[in-house]
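User: quick one
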Amino acid sequence: MVGYARPTKLSEALAALDRATATVIAGGTDVYPAHVGRAVPGDLLDISAVAELRGIADRGDHWRVGALATWTDLSRAPLPALFDGLKCAASAIGGIQIQNAGTLCGNLCNASPAADGIPAMMSLDGRVELSSVGGIETLPVGQFVTGNRRTARRPNQLMTAILIPKPAAPRAYGAFTKLGARASLVISIVMVAAVIEVSLAGVVVAARVAVGACSPLACRLPALEAALVGEPLTSALGGIAQDSHLGPLAPIDDARASAAYRRDAALTVIRRTLESLAANP
Amino acid sequence: MNDATAPIAGAEAIAFTVNGRPITVAAAPAKRLAAALRDDLGLTGTKVGCDAGDCGACTVLIDGAQFCSCLVPLGRIAGSEVTTVEGLEFGPLQAAFHRHGAAQCGICAPGLLIAATDLLRHTPAPTEQEVADALGGVLCRCTGYRKIVDAVLDVGGDDGGKVPSSGAAVGARTVKVDGIAKLTGEARFGADAVPTGALWLKAVRAPYPARFTVGELGPLRAAHPGLVRVLAAADLPCNAFGIYPELRDQPVLADGLARYRGEAVLALVGDRDSLALVDAGSVPVSYEPIQAVHGLDAAMAKDAPRVQADKPGNLLVEGGVVSGDADRAWADCAALAEGVFETSAVEHAYIEPEAGWARRTGDRIEIHVSTQTPYMDRDETAHVLGLAPDQVRIVPTTCGGGFGGKLDLLVQPLIARAAWLEGRPVAWVLDRPESMAASTKRHAARITARIGADDEGRLRAASVDAVFDTGAYASWGPTVAGRVPIHGCGPYRLANVRARGRAYFTNTAPAGAFRGFGVPQTAIAHEALIDDLAASLNIDRLEIRSRNALRPGDRTATGQVLGDSVGLAACLEALLPDWHAALAEAEAFNAADPRSRRGVGIGCMWYGIGNTAPSNPSTMRLALSRDGTLTLYNGAVDIGQGSSTVLAQVVADTLGVPVDRVRMVVGDTDRTDDAGKTSASRQTFISGRAAQLAGEDLTQRILRLVNAGADASLDLDGPSLTVTDGGARHRIDLTALPEDADGAVLAGAGRFDPPTTPLDADGQGTPYATYAFAAQMAVVDVDLALGMTRPVYIHAAHDVGRAINPTLTEGQIHGGIAQGLGLALMEEYLPGRTENLHDYLIPTFCDMPGITVTLIEQAEPLGPFGAKGVGEPALIPTAPAILGAIRHATGVRVTRVPALPHRLRAAIRDMERANG
Ligand SMILES: Cc1cc2nc3c(=O)[nH]c(=O)nc-3n(C[C@@H](O)[C@@H](O)[C@H](O)COP(=O)(O)OP(=O)(O)OC[C@H]3O[C@@H](n4cnc5c(N)ncnc54)[C@H](O)[C@@H]3O)c2cc1C
Ligand code: FES
Ligand code: FES
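Assistant: Done. Structure below.
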């Protein structure tokens, strides 16, 4: 491939990636800002015309979010309350211009420690679908992202979708809270995504809580999740979160906030996010 | 523009529709759409403020939806339909923007209009929240967003923008004289009208403070045949510039020693595409880090390395004001308050990065540049180039925001030198990270202050010691050090004052001029101390300010006796009902909701209009031509604040003609006279007065032609001018009068230099002819557990002397409030870490509180129709009011701004711990 290619078929895109290393470009909202004042170096594979990668679909036992699904697509999609957290994250990314262009898959592939999509997907137990000419593999999001801007994607693989399993419990709710130093257009200091599955009796049967920007990669809090199971869905859920549950966090000092603040704020935000889940019917 | 002759690597023919017109562009498909629109299609209405998705200035519609065109590969839009600002009809939306003065500098307007068009197509009658959500991806640094929201909510509203009748322009909400071009994409900013075939310039900048050597350039030139010249320090006839002729300490290109990260060491000149391919790492410069001085403590340390070899102790200057005997007066005080307050370096963050182009015309050089100060640019550039000032012509472009940051030379000398040597036009547009690394900042400051009062809260004595981090070069440091001691104790009656300002060099970007010249930093200190005194004496915070407010006839710390235009007490009185209501409401609110606590705060300020002490005149000329065109030759650049409109209003009412008759030539140093710089809030007062005098002069000349009395009236109707003098009517046929060289048949001129006197060793004298006064109150909610502050409401009362244009005056206040809010809560420039608009945060639509503006008009006899100034005063009281509100809500006295969530949370925790 030379320069820039914009295939219309997935097979062409995969073949191109197999021939030579190229920078995949979906919405371009991470690719271009990384090269201010100069051209994006190397070859570009623009996947925006590949129709197979569009759409958000109900596939029976799971939902499939295509690689080209933008934040705007997610905000507008008719999805159940399980997705409320993801939708909330989607509508807080940049302005409308960015939401119209940026994709969830691009957010995961870019693997910034401040990516809002990563904790949201961890809370949804999402699996990424990686395709290459050699076949398809799927990986849980937590294994796909391996570090600060590092992923398990091989250069010849394209992320074709994210798959979100349908919960076994009769009811499931999601919530997301983002903390930044200004009201909008802001990179998160801390973000928390939570999903709970609830029995008909109103008891939490499963919980997944993920925290971003407080460690090189976003992480789940298994001890907290375990503590939530068996609790009734009331605003008292918030009070269950304790400092002792934050073991996996390893926040750092940077220009946005101190490490101590991140840890302290994470607990507050976790509590409030859990509390907000009780507002569900 | 691309050099038309250069082949474009990897170009493809890409067909799409722009503004309804099918088009094919031959360009690299990975090229950013924004660049293709501007460079290949000449559609420069689409602006580039960051090239990173952060500012939204480049927003266009693609197939009906809004996108940042700086993030879209051109190849992607093959077959699509693109709409830019040029493709929008001038309709009710644009009319509403115009009517509300929603575009100040106007660089953000194209993006906003596109976003608003998108919104209104789906939601014809949006709510305020919907407007903020839909337009929220566009940053504006000038307006504080209020007028923009008002405009979008008022699309199709009553057209209040009618031209006021003769003699009624002053005080009317007339539309901006340069407003329409800013709403159609026609206005040409610094980067917009680069001639085809121009060479471009690219600077090589030091990655850290370092000694450096430049290696063999042959291989670089061989690798880039399009590179025609590399300029180094030795290529400049006089490689030094500065604000003060006796302090020209800044090299245009560093000479072996780069004193700060971002300092230019070489300038590459060549065709644009070739320069784009030069990788900074391939330029043979080797850097040896120096022992750098960072921060005030390091600069002031005993054995500190010298930033500039001839500046012992790293001290740039010291200024002071002493009156009475503060040391003795402390003993008489019933209450004392003291503290140390620190503020951060702040970036101007105008949405238009520095830009311009130059061309040589014989033995002269012509520079088209976005600037606040054409005449200083002319003189300093001439100095650097070794030319006489009249060999340099500055033609200001539309300026996409300045705020003090475009008062220093940046692109001017290098493009001029390159164009001089090459004989071809040379252009330079900085990108955002470069602009942020290279340009000046607001001085970071540490202010140690003490104020004492008697038991009735009357201030007895104050001392202020303000130290400023002035960066690697002097720039406007002396101005700050001089202005601060005068204003350092606040707008209060004080018999005993000891105030000192000092500026220290460090190895960081030079701190320069930024709206307020150090006064906003100091106001944070004195207002916190007044709150302390109120608390310890159990006096209401507004009341204690009223008791001490300067009033007409009072003597200031410099010994100046104030005249009649002293409206602080009236400002405070205007706030009083809201103040009490807000206090009561906060109490009720806090009783109900423990998570967020509401607080109310207040801040006062005064601000001397114009330069401190030295003469700073303005000259305006007014000419009438045969066809009846009235032209104001106006050397005062309008940087968006609206000086051109204000001057037109002043001229119109002076002559008694409708305001839309006044044409204007602005800023061109060949065609106007020196009006001084657009800074220090001086243009309305000083140039306004000069314009009034020019109008009076022209009127006199007309009246003399027909021997009419002084109260005769004029009626200008094309080439015929009618003078009505009592019952008598005289017709003057302009076509019959002889023309001068400028084509004028009648002309008038006015010059005004505000009466000031130099300050003596104790800082005694009359540094300014008049002062603006203001009080603002703020209501904020603080989330205690997270340390997050949300401003809810601000009421700003400003004594402006006379609001020549209330819409523009409010716009200045809104914009000042936004910048004050940023200073208080979020803005902190850290070299290398916050050099873009996603890490450096400025307020967005969603950060702005509700704002009420009350204009107090205590006429200033020297000013045009009583006017003073408002540009800088607008932002000074905001941070103190917000910090006072935070304290009221939480009990925490913030001593370091910005009060980022982690800082405020830490302070709240410390206080909770201390209280057990
Ligand atoms: C102004 C602004 C504000 C923002 N605010 C936020 C925010 O608040 N929170 C947040 O999390 N993010 C934010 N972002 C970043 C966010 O827009 C991106 O992370 C976005 O979601 C990435 O999607 P994209 O399609 O634009 O990715 P691109 O830029 O196209 O690609 C991103 C990376 O992923 C790779 N890639 C993309 N798609 C694939 C694929 N299918 N297979 C393999 N590799 C792929 C690319 O090669 C590249 O390395 C912001 C960006 C901007 C410009
Ligand atoms: S230039 Fe595109 S968003 Fe700033
Ligand atoms: S008017 Fe919006 S940036 Fe100047």
